[in-house]
Amino acid sequence: MTGTLRTASLLTAAVAALPAALAAAHCAPVVSTFGPLRNRVMPRLAGKGRADHVALTFDDGPDPESTPSFLRLLAERDVRATFFLLGSEAHRSPGLVRDIAAAGHEIGVHGWLHRPLLLRGPRATHSDLARARDTVAEITGRRPTLFRPPYGVMSASAHIAARRLGLAPVLWTCWGEDWTARATPESVHRTVVADLYGGGTVLLHDSDCTSAPGAWRSALGALPRILDTCEERGYEVGPLRDHGTPGPGPDPDTEADRGRPAQARGAAPRAVA
Q1: Strand bridging mode 146-147 / 168-169
Q2: Are 138 and 114 in contact (CB under 8 A)?
Q3: Residues with a known catalytic role
């Protein structure tokens, strides 16, 4: 009887502890948010590539007010980049998404809405990423293979969903802190250059939809100087596809699904958020 009671007590304790254990597992990937640790022990997630190359990336677009200015500057400098688009913004500006693709830039997804994935469960996370992925695929005719989580915060659910959707998570090695009201072109350039090295991935923002109003102007103003610094140091600047980092695993939707409309693959219908 004593053994039975002890077993029952252990089972009760285990059941009570289960939610805490699941929460801990869900949140464990948050450690990758710490840049120095990520850059040192998680090179693939950090976006570290070949030593003579710097990957240039932009988050939070597309934005009709600001993104065209970035596209013009990049065209003038003959530079290609990777744009991590929010699905909801892509849906609002499909023509701009096509402009980004037509200019030769790489497109990844930044989720449907800019909300922390840490606060979402497996089903909601998968739905968010799938909706963004399929929206971009419908607009451009090409399914994206890269994913960057809002705020750069991963969860276990995000890793699982990304893997199932054929998306490779990529963060960054340096950023410009260009989202704040106090940011200036000088401060953005200084902040990026402080951690800039060959093989690194630079994060900037081509939209202020989640930043201080007008903050994108600091990134735009800093961009020529950042490109000049890379040139002076002998770094080629380009998108992540040219960076020498591994891509995602095979798409689980099977080869036969490729080329079929997203709706036929069971994708969620698009709607304005």
Answers
A1: parallel
A2: no
A3: 59, 205
